[in-house]
Amino acid sequence: MVSGRILHGRELRGTHRVDADVVVCGGGAGGSMAARELARAGKDVVLLEEGGDHLPRDFTQREDEMLPMLFQDMAGRRTDDLAIAILSGRGLGGSTVHNQNLCKRTPDVLLAHWRDDLGVEGVGPEDLSPLYDEVERDLGVRRIEDHRVNVHNQVIQRGVEALGWAGGRLSHNRDERCIGSGFCELGCAYDGKLNARRVLVPQIVEAGGRIYADCRVERVLHDGRRVSGVSATLLGAGGETRGTLEARARAVCLAGSAIGSPAMALRSGVPDPWGTLGRGLRLHPAAVVAGLFDRPIEAWRGVPQSYECTELLDLSPGSERRVWLVPSFAHPIGTASIMPGFGPALHREMRRYPRLAVLAAMVHDETAGRVYLDGDRTRIEYEPTHEDREQLAKGIEAGAKILLAAGASECVVPALPLIRIRSERDLDAVTAERFLPHDARLTAVHPMGSMRMGPDPKTSVTDPRGACHALEGLWVADGSLFPTSIGVPPQISIYTFGMKVARAVAQG
Amino acid sequence: MVRIGRRRLLRWGLGGAAAVGLGGLFAWQTSGYEVPSAIARRLRALTPKEYLIVEAAAARILRSDRPEDPAPGELEVALFVDGFVARLDEATRDDLKKLLHLLEHGLPLSAGRASRFTRLDGPGQDGVLAAMMNSSVGLLRGAFDSLRSLCAMAYWRDPRTWQAIGYDGPLVARPSGGWW
C-alpha cells in the first residue's frame, strides 16, 4: 500500500517514474472527485496538477497577485479573436478555489434531453440524483443564509421583485469560517470554502492517493489502441522545468477542464477518427450591465452572489429564454478592465465604482466552438451565433430593467461605443448587433462540452460512462463531457460526473 | 504595408498582447531610446525601447483629469508591466513585444501620423490609441483592450489609487489606519 501524500514539482529535480492503477490529470472539481473515489475504492491513484498547491495563507486578496497565480495563462486566456476573456482555474482545487461557490444542479429537463434525445444512457434525473445528493453532502451545500445577503444582492432582488419577475436565493458550499470578506474570486484567506482543495484533497491523501502539484502533463502515452500512462514536466516556482515524471498506469483520466483536456488529448495524438475531439465547446458567454445609484452599494463587500433572476431561464430544448441573470462584481482591476475608454473617461467611470450595481447576463449557449492546437499552443475558436447574441441582448435589456426598477439613475453597458440607458426608451439600442465580437465586453468562466459523451463515436468522444471511444483506458472526468451547455454554474455537475466516471473506472 | 491576418495576430489576454507579425520588423530600430541606468538595471523582459513605449502608452491610457490622482509614472506602471511580462510564456511575451513595436512604428502611420508613437505629443498619442481602440479590425481592438487591461492592472493595484474610487482594499495585511 502506497501512503498518500502531496509532492511539489518545485521541490523535486531529475527524472522520476511512478506506477499506479490510474493517473488523473488535473486537480479541479472533476479530477479531485475522481481521485478520491478511486482511492477509496482501493485503487492506487496518482493525481497530477499543473498549478501549485495554494493554501489560505497564500491568498493576499490582491488582484495583481492572485489573478496570475490562480488562473490559466495568468488570467489572460482569450478566444482566438481576443473577443472573449476566459477565466479558468489553475492549481490544486482548480476553479473551485476562486469561484463564487454557486451550487446548482443541471436541470432535470436537460438531463432528460441528454438521455432521451441524445441517447446518453445513465444520465437521467433518476440516475444522477443520488450522486448529486452525495456530492452536496460532501460539500456542505446549503441555501445561503439571510444575514449573508449583501446590499448589492438586496438591490438586485428589489428590482426583480418590483417587476414581478422570477428570482430566488442561491445555494453555496461554504461554512462558518466564511466571514463575508467578498474576496472569493481571489481565493479564500479564511478557508471558508468547502471546495475541492479543502474537502477532497485531504481525503485523497488519507485514502492513499499520491498528488503531484506543479506537474504539467505533456502527453498521454499510448500505442494507438490503449493507454500506458502519461509523461509530465515538473515545474519550478517560476514555471521553469525542474525535471520529468513518467506515470505508468492502465487507466488515465483527463480532468484538465474543457480546454485543457482536449488540448492534452490532441497534443498526445489520441486517435480521433471522426474529428470530434475539441469540438462542441460551450462557454456560457456573459455580458454585464451596470446601474448607477445615488448611494453607496459597495458591491465588493460580503458574499458576492446570493440571488438569481430566472425570469429568462427556460432550459427546455429549443427554448428562446436562455439567459441566467446574476449579480456580478469585480474588484478595481477587474472593473477597470471591463470599462471602455481610456484617459479621463476611464477615470470618470471608475470614480462611480462604489455606487454601481452590476448584473451579468449569462447565455445557455448553442454556439459550438472548438479547442485546437497551433503548434504546441492551445487555441480556442468561438464566435457567438446570431441567436446567442440575441440572447445576450435580451439579457442585458432585462438586466437594465431590473436595475432601473431598483432605482438606478442610469445604466451602462460596457461596449464600444458605450451604451447608456436612462429609461426604457433607451433599450432600443440593445440589439444583437451590439454583441458582435469586440463590440461588447464578453467574459466566460464555464467552458464545457469539448469531449462530449454519447453513444455514437461519429458524434462523440467518449461513451456515456466517460470512456474514450477510440483509445482504451482513456477516460474523461470533467465538464468536457457535457453534450450541451447546462445553463447553470457547472461545479456541482462536474463534481458529480467526476464521481460517476470514477466509479465506472473502478469497475474496470 | 501593414497586413493584418487573423492567424498572424497572435492572441493575448489580460497580461499579454496580440501583435501583428510585422511589428517584429521594427524591433531592430533601437536608436533614440535611452532610459536612466537605474531603470535599465531593473528591466527583466522589456528592452529600454519597449519600456519607453509602454511608459508612453500608459501615460495616456491612465491619464486622469484630476491633479490629485497619482500619475502612472509615479506608480512605476511601466516597470510593473515589465515584471508581469517577464512571467508570461515566451510566445505570449513575443506577441506583446511585436505589438509594442507596431504601436511605435506602424499604427501612427495608419492613423496619419508620420512619427513614432513615443515622439508624438499627448493628443497625437491619444489619436493613435483611439484609432486602435475603434479600429474596424477586431483583432486590433482586442489588442488595445488587452494593453489597456495590463496598464489598468499596473495602476489600480496600487493603494494610492483606491481613495479616488472609494475602495478600501484587502482585509489581509490592512494597515491599522487603513490603506488610505
Protein model, in words:
The complex is a heterodimer of chains A (508) and B (180). With 508 residues, chain A is an alpha/beta fold. In chain A, 25% of the residues lie in helices and 22% in strands. In chain A, strands 1-9-4-3-13-24 form a 6-stranded parallel β-sheet. In chain A, a hairpin with a 5-residue loop joins strand 11 and strand 12. Chain A starts with a strand and ends with a helix. The mean pLDDT of chain A is 97. Chain B is mainly α. Chain B has helices at 37-42, 48-61, 77-87, 90-110, 122-133, 138-156. The radius of gyration of chain B is 17 Å and the shape is globular. At the A-B interface, helix 2, helix 8 and helix 9 of A face helix 3, helix 5 and helix 6 of B.
Coarse shape of chain A: globular
- The number of helices of chain B is 6
Tally of individual helices of chain A: 11
Ends distance of chain B? 50 Å
Structural class of chain A: alpha/beta
What portion of residues of chain B belong to β-strands? under 5%
Determine the mean pLDDT of chain A.
97
Q: Rg of chain B to the nearest angstrom?
A: 17 Å
Number of DSSP strand runs of chain A: 24
| Greatest chain-chain contact | A-B, 51 and 54 residues
Average pLDDT taken over every residue of chain B: 86
- Let me know the largest β-sheet of chain A: 6 strands, parallel
Name the helicity range of chain A. Answer: 25-40%
List the helices and strands and how they pair.
The complex is a heterodimer of chains A (508) and B (180).
Chain A: E1 5-8, E2 14-19, E3 22-25, H1 29-40, E4 45-48, H2 63-70, E5 84-86, H3 108-116, H4 125-138, E6 142-143, H5 151-163, E7 167-169, E8 171-172, H6 196-206, E9 210-213, E10 215-222, E11 227-235, E12 241-248, E13 251-254, H7 257-267, E14 279-281, E15 286-292, E16 307-309, E17 323-327, H8 332-338, H9 344-350, E18 356-363, E19 369-374, E20 377-381, H10 386-405, E21 410-413, E22 419-421, E23 442-444, E24 474-476, H11 491-506
Helix pairs in contact in A: 1-6, 1-11, 4-11, 5-10
Chain B: H1 37-42, H2 48-61, H3 77-87, H4 90-110, H5 122-133, H6 138-156
Helix pairs in contact in B: 2-3, 2-5, 3-6, 4-5
